[in-house]
Amino acid sequence: MSELRSILVEQVERLVADAGGVAPLREVEAGHFPQSLWDGLSEQGLALALVPEEAGGVGLSWGDAAALWQVLGKHGAPVPMAETMLGAALLSAAGVEVPDGVLALGEKAAPFGRHATNAVKLDGARLTLHPVEGATPGANIGREPRDDLTLGQRSAAGILPNSHGPRALRQGLALIRAAQIAGALERILALAVDWANTRRQFGRPIGKFQAVQQQLAAMAGEVAAVQVAVSNAARAVDARGLAEAGFEIGCAKVVAGEAATFGAATAHQVFAAIGITEDHELHHFTRRLWAWREEGGTDRAWAAEIGKLALARGGANLWPDLTARDA
Amino acid sequence: MRFDLPDTPPGAEALRAELRAFLAEAGRAWTPDIRARSWMGFDRDFSREVGARSWIGMTWPAAYGGHERSGLERVVVLEEMLAAGAPVGAHWIGDRQSGPLILRLGTEEQRRRILPGIARGELAFCIGLSEPDAGSDLANLRTKAERVPGGWKLNGRKIWTTFAHKSDYMIALVRTSPAPEGGSRHAGLSQFLVDLKLSGISIRPIRDLAGADSFNEVTFDDVMLGEDDLVGAEGAGWAQATSELAFERSGPDRYLSSFPALSQGLDALAANPVPGAEVSVGRMVARLSALRGMSLSVGGMLERGEDPAVEAALVKDVGNVFEQVLPEHLRGLLDPEDSPAELRALLAALTQLTPTFSLRGGTREILRGIIARDLGLR
């Protein structure tokens, strides 16, 4: 990890951790917006993190951004910063000035849409910016706002360069969710290990039982696989642009979806009854994992796409195609 | 745990092209059974060809027959060999483990005696670890070497030793002094370079469930070893043997064992489409890509001189699951009647091999124990 990246990750982690553990998650789930956390992150210039320096942004790489999204995921990501970063990156790439505040992505089930002042829509390569005029509240099973929006006339428009491609929004969101899943999985693995070392049964911590150790070790393998898949996807975007990184992003979302399923189940098994109580913090992460699997394309949808391509290319091309994508 | 993807080494593409041309030609003669066995397939002629092309001992100094390439270039060679299902068993262990051990800890005489032969693909190695009462509990081993005038006298028994009956040398881990009372059983173990032609050695092949002779019972009856057959320091055998584990557990041989079936399965599915097959195929390809990233990351860390023992255990654990379920996934998709005979034979061979994937080189339970310790559970 580069020095810049580790400093950034540390700063953001401190901000999110200082916001009070799961308190901001409960706040969001009760319908409030954790304004002070949003302001704190905004003051770091995070919203413009993926906007190039020459366009007034911070000019982070996608690798750096993915590392930040993992940190957000590790803490439940109670603010739409990742989405706003993506929206700003696309607007800037299309030559549209980035407005202040939360950016909604799309108009259906838009993450935190009710808190957004503007929404970004993509039609082919044409990107448009719209004021948000109304929101029908909705939520995913993470109880994060997913709102259907009423948008005003476009206030600005631009054309995304070929490097971004017509699926830039979906691919960007898939990478965000995969990175958040990596972070949330890292968190629930740590929680489960801590619990296994604390909870005593039959006269010893349950973590001393091989059955429990083996399950958590298997989960660690899944966490590692997602982390690597996410790094690989972010690196592909940095090397070739979003348009040409669909394969790696898809792989990341597939592995993340599978790992989310396995990891959430394993953590709940280790925590047993206490883990399914409302008072416990575990469900704030497992419900998000179940929700994030579904967003930005499910693992099933991405797997179908990857599989269709592999079948069309044929067995002899499978390995050469894979190595030809090395960065 | 930490995984950082390395940059692709310069010249990798040209190297891959060279390998693919060579393997396409050599592969004409390989039956499905050979492809399924891959690094469990032993073919001295093939290994000599690979050696002649400078693809063994790639990272070693030229003075010992090596080719002074980078570790990541070596990984390119391993990947291409395994993706093609090449029978690399006759040089695999020497290149992966025994050669690097001798290079690092052997005497100058040992290096000059052994390494050029491995690099030429002429000297085959096996690893003497397991014993009848020492499997996962390796430190329980009882084979012992006693100091005698002029060297060591070796007595005991090794078992499940892959290719002992076809190899030239064994690197054996044996006891050279009793474990200290109440102390660590890891103390008092040493590694020896054992010439398998020495008198007093009997090798009995043990037929496996697939009907093949791949592993053996090796008995040592007053075998006389020279002073210069000790590898590294007396009593340091445990640390020496375990320090190579990151190399042993993180390579593409831990997730590519079933790859030839996936490649052929795609063609069978393309010829006889099965509704929904693309989802299963996509899941396998995504896993493959993630595993390759994990394995390459460990390769990069090894290249930088780090000791990614836990990361290597993670590669092997996740990789073994993948290479074990892959044939089952294909079986779930393909109607045998619609499958070409070659693919059916490949799957039949793989099905009988898959149990070994999570046994060889450290069982799943041992690996997960290592990972659990790193997590803070033990």
UniProtKB/TrEMBL annotation, chain A:
Keywords: FAD, Flavoprotein, Oxidoreductase. It is an enzyme of class 1 (oxidoreductase). Residues 10-95 form the Acyl-CoA dehydrogenase/oxidase N-terminal domain. Its cofactor is FAD. Residues 177-300 form the Acyl-CoA dehydrogenase/oxidase C-terminal domain. InterPro entries: AcylCo_DH-like_C, AcylCo_DH/oxidase_C, AcylCoA_DH/ox_N, AcylCoA_DH/ox_N_sf, AcylCoA_DH/oxidase_NM_dom_sf. Its EC number is 1.3.8.7. SUPFAM superfamilies: Acyl-CoA dehydrogenase C-terminal domain-like, Acyl-CoA dehydrogenase NM domain-like. One of its GO terms (molecular function) is medium-chain fatty acyl-CoA dehydrogenase activity. PANTHER family: ACYL-COA DEHYDROGENASE (PTHR43884), ACYL-COA DEHYDROGENASE FADE28 (PTHR43884:SF20). Belongs to the acyl-CoA dehydrogenase family. This is Acyl-CoA dehydrogenase. It comes from Roseococcus suduntuyensis.
Automatic annotation (TrEMBL), chain B:
Residues 126-223 form the Acyl-CoA oxidase/dehydrogenase middle domain. Its EC number is 1.3.8.7. SUPFAM superfamilies: Acyl-CoA dehydrogenase NM domain-like. One of its GO terms (cellular component) is plasma membrane. It comes from the Bacteria. It is an enzyme of class 1 (oxidoreductase). Transmembrane segments: none annotated. Keywords: Oxidoreductase. Residues 12-122 form the Acyl-CoA dehydrogenase/oxidase N-terminal domain. GO terms for molecular function: flavin adenine dinucleotide binding; medium-chain fatty acyl-CoA dehydrogenase activity. The keyword Nucleus does not apply. This is Acyl-CoA dehydrogenase. It comes from Roseococcus suduntuyensis.
